[in-house]
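Sequence and fold
=================
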Amino acid sequence: MTKKFKLKAALLSIGLVTTLVSPVQGAEFDTKKPRAPKLNSTSIAQNEAIDSQLKVLSQQGAIDNDLKGISGQVNVIVHYDEPSVGLERGLKQTKSKKWSKLSDEKVKEKIAKQQQKANSKMQNKGIKYKKNHSYQTVINAEAMTVDAKDIEKIAQIEDVALVEKDDVIQIDPSEMQASKQQDVAKDTMGDELNLKLIPSITHLKVDKVWELGNKGKGVKVGVIDTGIDYNHPDLKDVYKGGRNYVGGGDYNTKRNADDPYETKPEERPGHLPEVNESGSEYYTTHGTHVAGTIAAQGKNEFGMYGIAPNVDLYAYRVLGAYGRGSTSWIVGGIEDAVKDDMDVINLSLGNSSPEENQANSMAVNNAMLLGVTANVATGNSGPERSTIGGPATSPLGIGVGNTTLPEERIDVDLKLGEETKNYKLMAYEFGNNPETTLKDQYELVNIPGLGKKEDFAQVNVKDKVALVERGEIAFVEKIKNAKDAGAKAVIVYNSETGSNSPGLADIFVGASFDYIPTVDMDRTQGLALKAKLEKEKVMIDFTKFNVTTTPGDDVNDSSSRGPSLPNFDIKPDVSAPGTNILSTIPSFAVGDNYSKAYAQYTGTSMATPHISGVSALLKELHPEWTPFDIKSALSNTAKHLDKSKFDVFSQGAGLVQPLEAATATSLFKVAHETEVNGVKQTHTRGTIAFGNQVPTSKAQVITKTIDVQKLSSDDNYAIEVETTRPSKSGATVTTDVQSIQSGKVTVNLNIPAGTPVQGDEIQGYIHFKGNRSYALPFAANLSEVKKKGFEKFALTNYHMSPNGDGNNDASSVHMKVYNKQNLTLLKYYDLLNEKSGPAGDGYVGSIDLFSGLDGEKEVVLDGKLYNIEGSNRVEGKLADGVYAVDAITTSDNGNATADDYPLFVKTKPAEIKSLALNNGKLSFKLDDLYINAKETLASYDINYNVSEFLKASYELSNNKTGEVVISDGGEGTIDINDKGEYHLTLNVEDVAGNKASFKYTVNTNTNEVSEGHKDIKDNTGTPVDEAKTLTDSEVNQFVNGKQKVLTVEGDKAVTFTKSQLAKLSQMKKNKSIVLNTSLHAVSLNSANMNELSKYGDVTIQIKKVDSTYQNAVQVLVKAGDSEVKSLVRPYALYIKGNRGLNVYNADANQRVASKYDKKLGQYGIQVTQFNTFGLK
């Protein structure tokens, strides 16, 4: 099961599919049209996989979208354009050419030369890389660690076809899943309970297949997973070896390359937690459970056998501590499994991307081409449609869905005083009959809180029954805490907000060694018992236990559904039991006691090894069968589950029937055409997917061909078409013949002329009935294809300061959906603390929930949020921090998510952390969100320079001003240099609009710094009113030359002689004299100079003024001892400042008309007075 950071939708991720997997987006590919070969159906399947890969290899240096815009060291998979061994073999076979081991070696030699050549080109370009793995068999690629800035260079190398991100993921901690109570089919009541295991073996009649052969003997099966406990009594005799791909610094000792043992608790180094921030335990058990379903030897007291217990079992450890793994490790496992001549591989892992052209899917396709049957879990994101993920969506691999087994359920009559009521058990101890362990009368004890470990510590429950409310922690944790505290049994009553409340939770957790008998009670009765316990002692009797059996054969709600989009393909291919599956786990998970090293897990991860075991049995019985023959046999013979509840996108071809597949007399293969990236491709399957066929003004007939291949019988099959979901527009499915022994059957989808009807589709089955009967499901979408979810989703401002000052008080998120939605929810996710929020999952609160979103909408983000506590909506305020805005939306077309980030929420300006003066240099350090968040955000590939978001400037009383560049660590330096004592004002402003000014008195003679502007003595340094002078030659050259502006830099006074002013009055009208400082500038034209020339010699100074106005300035003009107050003709004055302010005449407190230059960040005014002006 996988868990991935919730926000980055474009992450190519792989994980165990025992629950939801993370969304990904693959690279875009060109649309080269494929050749349309006229070959048999198996060759057509191979051609599809080959062609889709050739399209990738024929492109020049495509870059995975996930790699765009990131920085730092990154793990990548570099694909080269020479075909891999598997692809090259497929190319030869489609042309009916022979293949040999010598052919293998020739291709490997060619690939090795290409990879070496590409490596040399990288070195010549100055690209530094660390090579982690090289592949030749299932893909031609290398896994590398490179600097992100070099990815473009790598993509430009002639031999490179694709640069793909090699992501790390993490399995979900909750592998054992609670199931809904199922309807009971029959009662088996009696005086004594007989709790027996109803395993997949008997339910699927696997034991009948065993009678035909030798339980898979000689067939090599590879489990590509977290490794296995190869010392387990149920596995050690069939374990033949394995490989380890997991590396890094998360382990105390380095693991050998040939040691695929599960990650053990003692391998954990001290700096890593037992349980990480996502709730995953350090050690792993998943692969051992999968392996047991395939090959367990029955050396246990529970009657638990694997499907094919005589296989040769191999393990490929591609996921390590906390269940983390990478794409490159998984591809390495597939590559070596093919090299090791595996007949079958099991991949109980996957992602949520429908993209076929990613490393994992290509590796699975090529493994199939190389003769290895690859079974892949589809995921656990059901029950909604189109939730299936890759690589199970690949055309060649066998995608597996999850169904339920018949299971025994227990209910009990509880006597509480004079009243007796019947309740269901949601859990009990594995191997212990509750009727024999609960014979006496027991005291009932209310547990304070919600059944956490510390709650049980407050009361004595030894040999008593605990009453616990549902909520906050998992049922299994409450039950285990009760058992650890010595309780004999538990009653869990529903919470106010729990599902089905105030009724029963209706949950079945299962049996485990960690459990004790647990009663599922409604809230009303639970609260009544709690109230009674406050008044008196309550005793409870378990008077009668009853065992009932559920029918099974339901598709588990969590099993991912098809169709795969956008082509409306039928997936999964086949289904198998995957709910509450008992299998092996490592001994360290149960105190090193192998007699208890068994557990029940739920997920498509558990269904997939059933198909792998059956595949092994078929391979033993039919060694000549190819992986495509096995795939067809599984689909053709599957049992159709309740069609009124589960359509073809829920169950695929149906529930696997091993005996029927093993004894199939014919195979039925469908040549299917799929459009991927605008290119039509063909392949083989055991299902008939017509795809998207929209009615037009003319009638249409869409055809598919079934190739009936006779194996052992001369049966004449009667062909019948069963439509389970009729078309609203009158479309039908027919065949060109009504009976056949072998050969081709044309299946027609007949679409009448007309307009599309929303939601119109057709589903059903083509039945071949004879002495043995077979069937193939079909489906077509007859309505306009609707895209799912968000077309646009983006923040309008990534910085906001909701403090009510009118400056950046809000941001907003702009969204646009493809079509009308049902419900849309927006939430804030804390990027700085994944455990924050009421549920400890990083979500701090909801922004809004609205229905009927259609088209575009903009939602204001003003810092307000809410959470649901009990039945109350509790309003709150977003704390300063960095967040992502997450969205999920539901529609009839499926669910979709979107996000944008980072949203910096900052209501306070930076603060001075430290300050020091030394040798004329003032050093300071700031404390600020932009500084403190930088390191954490880098882990999300969010990188920035602090100086982009945080600006600082200073003003000294000697009129010296300047800007200070803030380092990423928050440090800044001011060069004062001049000796003496000065007033210093340090201004800090951030991009969110927060400002602060810090005033100090500094003495460069003594290196003293004190807060505030204190009285200071006259300095002995250079007088501030010392004037600069221009030479006559400078003035003449400017007036007579082509230069349009003569700029005098600095904040000292400038003196112009009368003759210079007279000369400047003759300059052209497009010329000007500019006196410029860091914050202000004055521009004087020829008319201004003409007026000033009447005063004789003139000195002009731009003087910074302390004022309530921002960046206040006064222009002083002196002629001898007199001061010039104004001119007749206006001059230009410029003041730097942030947008959104106004310029004021500070002396008159009057607003002055101004223009703002966004590029220069300054205001310009035209005035005649030499007054004080500032911003407000």
User: Anything to note?
Assistant: The domain at 1027-1175 is CATH 2.60.220 (Chondroitinase Ac; Chain A, domain 3). The longest strand covers residues 894-905. The CA atoms of residues 1098 and 1119 lie 5 Å apart. Confidence is low (pLDDT under 50) at residues 1-49, 172-197, 674-681, 1020-1025.
